[in-house]
């Protein structure tokens, strides 16, 4: 039973990363590669595995502080990334045929550099607060973090590849849709924490 509870927690925590990976795979041109899927999955998995460890180590004394700000940070980061994707997707659609390559270069790439780091942190910040509850599942913190990271790795990698198939069908509109998904994800986190959890 504790193992099932841990797996359910891991899947729940990985859902935001999966959605972000899906949107990035959809925006990739011409389509995501296996290397890109591996890179995104690894970054998301590492962030998702380390955040519960951070939350656990800070302990209950700082739990309320984490819960008070995590949703605002995630909302801001995901909204900025999403807005950039929507903006560049719209500009690429409006650009003349000869300027399409320039429009593609302006597109924010969440599979490398600061974009990847920001997306990984934004989608894993909830896991810091969740880390405080891990001892209640009767598993060691190291084992629990490994399971959470492993589940995130599998779901994020699959998300990139599934998003690639989606992007091939929608073309540049997939980048706009992906940006809207990230913005919606940020709004979901904010609403869940401020309205549903009374934070």
Describe the model.
This protein is an all-alpha fold. The chain is 80% helix and 0% strand. The radius of gyration is 17 Å and the shape is globular.
Provide tags for this entry.
80% helix; mainly alpha; 0% strand; 199 residues
Average pLDDT for all residues: 78
Unreliable parts: 96-106
Return the string of H and E elements.
HHHHHHHH
Report the helical percentage: over 70%
- Major sheet attributes: none
Query: CA-to-CA gap between the ends?
Result: 30 Å
Silhouette: globular
The number of helical runs is 8
Number of strands: 0
Structural class: mainly alpha
Roughly what fraction of the amino acids lie in strands?
under 5%
Q: How many whole angstroms does the radius of gyration measure?
A: 17 Å
Helices and strands, with pairings:
Layout: H1 2-27, H2 34-58, H3 63-94, H4 100-105, H5 113-124, H6 126-130, H7 141-170, H8 173-196
Question: What's this model, at a glance?
Answer:
With 199 residues, the protein is mainly alpha-helical. It has helices spanning 2-27, 34-58, 63-94, 100-105, 113-124, 126-130, 141-170, 173-196.
């Amino acid at each position: 039973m504790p193992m099932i509870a841990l797996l359910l927690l891991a899947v729940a925590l990985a859902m935001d990363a999966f959605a972000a990976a899906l949107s990035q795979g959809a925006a990739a041109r011409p389509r995501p590669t296996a290397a890109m899927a591996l890179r995104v999955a690894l970054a998301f998995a590492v962030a998702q595995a380390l955040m519960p460890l951070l939350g656990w180590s800070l302990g209950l004394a700082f739990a309320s502080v984490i819960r008070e700000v995590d949703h605002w940070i995630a909302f801001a980061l995901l909204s900025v990334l999403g807005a950039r994707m929507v903006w560049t997707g719209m500009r690429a659609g409006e650009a003349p045929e000869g300027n399409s390559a320039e429009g593609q270069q302006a597109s924010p790439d969440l599979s490398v550099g600061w974009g990847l780091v920001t997306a990984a942190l934004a989608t894993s910040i909830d896991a810091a607060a969740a880390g405080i509850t891990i001892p209640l599942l009767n598993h060691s913190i190291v084992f629990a973090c490994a399971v959470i990271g492993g589940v995130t790795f599998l779901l994020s990698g699959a998300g990139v590849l599934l998003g690639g198939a989606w992007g091939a069908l929608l073309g540049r509109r997939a980048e706009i849709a992906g940006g809207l998904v990230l913005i919606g994800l940020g709004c979901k986190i904010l609403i869940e924490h401020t309205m549903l959890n009374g934070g």
